[in-house]
Here is the input.
Amino acid sequence: MCRCYGLDTAVPLSEQKRARIVKLAIDFHVAESTAYRWCEGIVDLVLLAAVQSRAIEPFEKDEA
Here is the structure.
């Protein structure tokens, strides 16, 4: 996750997300589409965990 989103080091503003994903795909010897799928999967898991822990509520509940 750190390498996917550039959390381990500061990402220069000039470096685009696509370039980072392509480098990640090359490093792990996977297709570029697989690297994008991993990023989407990570976001899905983080959102699911946040909802389950009630850190966020995606749908407001009307108390009225």
User: Anything to note?
Assistant: The helical segments are 2-5, 17-28, 32-52.
